[in-house]
Amino acid sequence: MILREKKPREVNGQAQKDISVRSSTPQNMRSGLTKKQLLVFNFVKNFIIKNKYSPSYKEIAKGLGYKSKSAIHSIIINLHSRGWINRKVGGSRSIIINT
User: Fold this and answer.
1) Which residues of the chain are under the pLDDT cut of 70?
2) From CA 68, how far away is CA 62, in angstroms rounded?
3) pTM here?
4) 26 DSSP assignment
5) d(CA 15, CA 35)
6) Measured on CA atoms in the order 38, 39, 45, 46, is the torsion positive or negative?
7) Domains delineated in the chain
């Protein structure tokens, strides 16, 4: 998020500063992804590009500083239900990025 100061405006004879907020968030965030979901999505996408296979939940958790694989699991479930990724239930390293 980028804060920009506007020209002072007068209210009741006194100059007031306005601060406008211009969103510098990616289009994905405006499409309904939370910050955590976006972090996981980008991590998985970059991991697949680099390694040519998808990461395990443990690798995602370690890469993003999470202590729990269950937190990653719930984020992956949400990304899948929103249509950002596909996965095979019960399959290891089965995350596929939807393009």
Assistant:
1) 1-31
2) 9
3) 0.67
4) -
5) 36
6) positive
7) 27-97 (1.10.10.10)
